[in-house]
Structure formats: structure tokens, C-alpha cells
Design goal:
- By secondary structure, the chain is α/β, with parallel strands linked by helices.
- It has 4 domains: about 120 residues, Rossmann fold, CATH 3.40.50; about 70 residues, Regulator of K+ conductance, C-terminal domain (Alpha-Beta Plaits); about 110 residues, 3-Layer(aba) Sandwich (Rossmann fold), CATH 3.40.50; about 80 residues, Alpha-Beta Plaits, CATH 3.30.70.1450.
- Helices cover about 30% and strands about 25% of the residues.
- The protein has a 6-stranded parallel β-sheet, sandwiched between helices.
- β12, α9 and β13 form a beta-alpha-beta unit.
- α1 crosses α14 and α6 crosses α14.
Length: about 475
């Protein structure tokens, strides 16, 4: 696939790095000279120092032969205009734009602005990040949760506690302990991501990723040594866009965001609305007034979270959960750790990139949401062809989950799972067939229309697409 990316910020460079690793042909356009030089020194692809909304620059980057254009500059308007410019000359080109303006996304979702300015897909960073927060929160903020659409299965990640049932467990004995249908898909150990084998032995402080049905996930988490009471008193630090979206999801007020009403529908069975208490802590007085009008059932505190006297006076330490969602990732990490030391049971922190994710987890933050990585995964899910419906990277980023639909002309159709040896130790871990989901066994036969989720090391997407995508 040939992809032109406009914008070499954290998202643009992270996206380019992943695509280059997967052996796609990538060109990157950046208007800032220092950013362009930085990207050129670190990426094995064409990097142009130019304005992305110039047709001459797009042509020099290879837009004529490209399959997709991804615009991720800091300006919504530049991203949309660039897509519109490309659409006027190359209508068949796939065009993706990152935007932060709710109106653009709402117009696209309601159909009023279908393919607004030629954009095929909008990616809203705040919506993607808040969805990730609420998904983890729905399971007690014990670990990160990845849900698979149209199935009851989820992928939960959690650290093994010392002395738990999983501490010292050899995976060959896993079935004797866990009766529910589930699968250990990945083990993170001392910064390294491992695809487990039967001989793998789990130990304390391993971070494991387990596939199980939603109804069984809490029991699996308990076996790992993590048992929690319901999270009823929830605090949000930062009342900006992400904080307001999270509050809207908690209070069943997603319509306030102006986005599609089913955005937070998975949260309806979380905790009854009348038993939740939401506290929003925001330093800006004007923002607090707006939040008070939008969320009258929430307690809005116009305070500085770093003020120790305020934390004591308002009994912030009595909260069950704190979500730090300010624009300052260092403050998010420090505030989460500090408030846990004052008695808050669980903490979720938003950070910019995956580098801070590992640091925050090591320091004791329960769930860390790397916003840029969430956005990149969302873009990849819309970008990749060959039946690929979703991409999500795990651990240190070297392992990924790929959701793919098997077409009628796929080489895998009507063949058994034993006929394929997936590259990089890959594993088909979940199948959704005509609405029925299951973990495949050795006698499983691939059929056209099957939606499968598999886990594999990065750098093998092309090989996986060759197995499961359309025949060439």
C-alpha cells in the first residue's frame, strides 16, 4: 500500500514508523523544518519539508499513485482542506483526517455532511481516548480492556499479584484452574512482550492479556489477585474536552458532546446512574461554569489539584477512582500517584505517547491511556485493506491484534486452521461467524464471512493479508 501522510507530529511519525515496518510505501509531508528534519533522520521513508495543502507537494510525495492520504496536522481545517484538494483530483483515493471539532464529526455521522470536503473517515482524538477510559472503567479500572465489536469477548490486561492463583502457574495447567472459555494471548515481562507457549510459567508482576467473555472477565481478574469493590465515587481531574466526554459517558449524557448517541452505550450496565457520584476538578473558573450548566448532577470544584490543603478539605482521598485527564501528561501521572497515596483506590491517567505509559505503570498508576497510540490504532483500523477491520498494538508495541474478515476469494476460505502456520508465532484467538463467537480449536475450518481476530508480531501484516485477504 502507498500512503501519503501530512503532518510529522507524534501521531504522524508513529503512524509512518508502523507502516514502514509493515513494508508499506510511505511519504511524509511536514511544514515545520525542524520536525521534517527530525522525521527524516528517524524514518526510512521520503520526508518532504513543504505545505501539505499544496498540490505540488502532494504530487511530489507520490499522491498520483497513492492508495490513501492521512492528514494529521495540528489544524482541523488544514487536514480537511488537504483532503478536499486531493479529492478534487483523485476521487478514488482513501482520505482520513484527524479533527477535534465536534461539529465536523457530527455532520459526518448524521449524514448531513457525508464525505464532508471529500473526507472518507474522521478520527477524533478526544472521543477515541474517552472511549478507552470508559472501557477500562467499566471493569473496575483494574486493567486495560479491549472490546471486540458484535461479540461478548474482551481482551483484558492485568498485572499478576504475588501469591495469587496465577503466580507460578504453568500454562499447561491453565485449563485445570480456569474453567471458563478463555485464552492467555500475551505476557509482558520486564519490558519484553512474549507470545506464550504451553511451557510458559506466569510469575508475579507479569502483565498478562487474557481473552474471555465479558461476563467472566471479573472472575479471571480475581484469579490474578485483583479484587475490587464497585467504583461509585469517581473524580475527574481536568474539565476540558476529554474530561467532559468522560463525564458525559458516566452520567449518561453523551448527547451533550454532540456526537452519536451510541458512543457510550456499552456503559449502561456499569453502575446504576443514581448510585454514582461524579466530581470534576478544574482550575479554570469559566470552564467550571460551563461544566456546572452541562452536568448539574455532578460536583464541580474550581480548584488546583496540586493544592494539598484542598485535597484534605474536600476529602478527595475518599474517592474510589480518580481519572487524570488534563492537557499536561506529567501532571496527570503525578496527580494520579499522589491521590492514590492519599487513599484513592484506583487511578487512570491519560498520557501523550506509549513511552510514558510504561513509566506511569511502573510508578503505580493502574490504567494508562496513551492518547497518540489510541489515535494511531484508530487510523490503522480505517486505513488497512485486504479485509482488515481493526488494528490494536499491545505491550511495547511489538505485538499487535488484527481483526480481519475472510472474503469468498480468500486463500484461507474452506481450509482448516492447521493448514496455516502464521508468521512470528501468530495465533488465531477469536472467530465471529454469523453472530456466534468462539475461540477456535484445532478442527476449526475457515469460512467466507468469518471475522477473525489474531495476534502476531509486528512486521507480518503483509504475510497475514496474503493468508486471509483477497486472492491476488
Amino acid at each position: 500500500m502507498r500512503v501519503v501522510i501530512v503532518g510529522a507530529g507524534l501521531v504522524g511519525t508513529q503512524l509512518a514508523r508502523h507502516l514502514v515496518q509493515e513494508k508499506h510505501d510511505v511519504s511524509l509531508i511536514e511544514s515545520n523544518e525542524e520536525r521534517a528534519r527530525h522525521a527524516s533522520n528517524r524514518l526510512d521513508c521520503l520526508v518532504l519539508h513543504d505545505e501539505g495543502n499544496k498540490l505540488s507537494a502532494l504530487k511530489e510525495a507520490g499522491i498520483v499513485k497513492a492508495d490513501a492520504l492521512v492528514c494529521v496536522t495540528d489544524s482541523d481545517e488544514v487536514n480537511m482542506i488537504t483532503c478536499g484538494l486531493a479529492a478534487s483530483c483523485y476521487p478514488e483515493l482513501l482520505k482520513i483526517a484527524r479533527v477535534r471539532n465536534d461539529d465536523y464529526v457530527r455532520l459526518n455521522q448524521t449524514g448531513e455532511g457525508t464525505h464532508l470536503l471529500g473526507v472518507d473517515h474522521f478520527v477524533h482524538p478526544d472521543v477515541e481516548s474517552s472511549r478507552a477510559v470508559l472501557s477500562a472503567l467499566a471493569h473496575g479500572a483494574i486493567g486495560n480492556i479491549l472490546a471486540f465489536a458484535d461479540t461478548p469477548y474482551e481482551l483484558g490486561s492485568i498485572d499478576i499479584a504475588a501469591g495469587s492463583s496465577f503466580d507460578g502457574l504453568k500454562l499447561t495447567d491453565y485449563r485445570s484452574l480456569v474453567q471458563e472459555e478463555s485464552l492467555v494471548t500475551l505476557v509482558e515481562r520486564r519490558g519484553e512482550s512474549l507470545l506464550p507457549k504451553g511451557s510458559t510459567t506466569l510469575v508475579k508482576d507479569d502483565r498478562i492479556h487474557i481473552l474471555a467473555q465479558e461476563a467472566e472477565m471479573d472472575h479471571v481478574f480475581k484469579l490474578a489477585g485483583r479484587t475490587e469493590k464497585p467504583l461509585r465515587r469517581i473524580g475527574i481531574v481536568g474539565g476540558g474536552r476529554v474530561g467532559a466526554l468522560i463525564a458525559g459517558g458516566l452520567l449518561d449524557r453523551d448527547s451533550e458532546s454532540g456526537l452519536k448517541g451510541d458512543l457510550f452505550s456499552f456503559l449502561k450496565s456499569f453502575i446504576p446512574k443514581n448510585s454514582r457520584r461524579v466530581v470534576i476538578i478544574e482550575q479554570n473558573y469559566g470552564v467550571c461554569k460551563d461544566l456546572a450548566a452541562r452536568f448539574p448532577e455532578a460536583l464541580i470544584l474550581n480548584e488546583d489539584i496540586s493544592d494539598e490543603s484542598f485535597v484534605a478539605e474536600e476529602r478527595i482521598g475518599d474517592l474510589d477512582l480518580i481519572i487524570t485527564a488534563t492537557a499536561n501528561q506529567e501532571l496527570n501521572i503525578i496527580a494520579a500517584i499522589y491521590l492514590k497515596s492519599r487513599g484513592v483506590r484506583r487511578a487512570i491517567a491519560l498520557v501523550t505517547g506509549s513511552g510514558y505509559e510504561t513509566i506511569a505503570r511502573q510508578l503505580g498508576v493502574d490504567v494508562v491511556i496513551p492518547m497518540k497510540t489510541v489515535v494511531v490504532d484508530s487510523i490503522l483500523s480505517r486505513l488497512l485493506g485486504g479485509g482488515i477491520r481493526g488494528v490494536h498494538r499491545l505491550g511495547d508495541g511489538s505485538i499487535g491484534i488484527i481483526e480481519i474478515e475472510i472474503g469468498p476469494d480468500s486463500p484461507a476460505a474452506e481450509k482448516p486452521i492447521t493448514a496455516f502456520s502464521l508468521p512470528g508465532g501468530g495465533l488465531v484467538m477469536l472467530v465471529n461467524r454469523e453472530g456466534n463467537s468462539f475461540i477456535p480449536l484445532g478442527d476449526y475450518m475457515f469460512k467466507a464471512g468469518d471475522k477473525i481476530a489474531l495476534i502476531a508480531k509486528n512486521g507480518n501484516e503483509a504475510e497475514i493479508e496474503r493468508f486471509f485477504g483477497p486472492s491476488k
